[in-house]
Amino acid sequence: MAKEKDSNKELEEVGVILSRSEQFIENNQKKIIYGVIAIAVVVGAVLGFKHGYLIPQEKKATTAMFKGEQYFAKDSFALALNGNGADYEGFEAIIDQYGSTEAANLAKAYAGICYYKLGDAEKALEKLKSFKGKENMISPAIEGLIGDCYINLGNVKEGISYFEKAAKKADNEV
């Protein structure tokens, strides 16, 4: 009998909680609907931006970089950086046009290397520092090149600190 009383009390408590919940929903029905709609609109906007803008931009930027990578591989750093005036605009233009893409981020690294190879350590430093990479191969190499830029600019202490950062980031034998 004690068990029946306990179960009756529990049922009454559950009923009270349910009626409170129902009352809350009835009182705030419009706010809840507006909240759900707002969340749906935000999610839709984010997905639309990603799939309607970012992904196509990434494909265009990757395609645009192809010719630059060929020039870069041939040590034609000025052409890779500034374009050929015909069918390739250069890494600088890719960075400007497609700034929010991963390809433009990689173009920053390429541009920094080009500037370094062309003897402009200050611009190289600017581009290399703006590169955001987490890879185990590229990031340490870029850190090391930043160190080289500082050495060329006469700031040996800062250069050494970047060489140390590069060594810590390197997870490979290179």
Question: What is the number of strand segments?
Answer: 0
The rounded distance between the terminal residues' Cα atoms is 78 Å
Give the uncertain stretches in residue-range form.
none
SSE arrangement, N to C: HHHHHHHH
Proportion of residues in helical segments: over 70%
Beta content comes to under 5%
Instruction: Based on Cα principal axes, name the global outline.
Output: elongated
Instruction: Please tell me how large the radius of gyration is.
Output: 29 Å
Number of helices: 8
Main beta sheet = none
Mean pLDDT: 86
What does this structure look like?
The structure is a single chain. The chain is mostly helical and 174 residues long. It is 80% helix and 0% strand. The chain has helices at residues 2-27, 29-73, 77-82, 91-97, 102-117, 121-130, 138-152, 156-169. Helix 2 packs parallel to helix 5 (102-117). It is elongated. 26% of the residues are buried. The mean pLDDT is 86.
Quick overview of this protein structure:
By secondary structure, the chain is mainly alpha-helical. It is 80% helix and 0% strand.
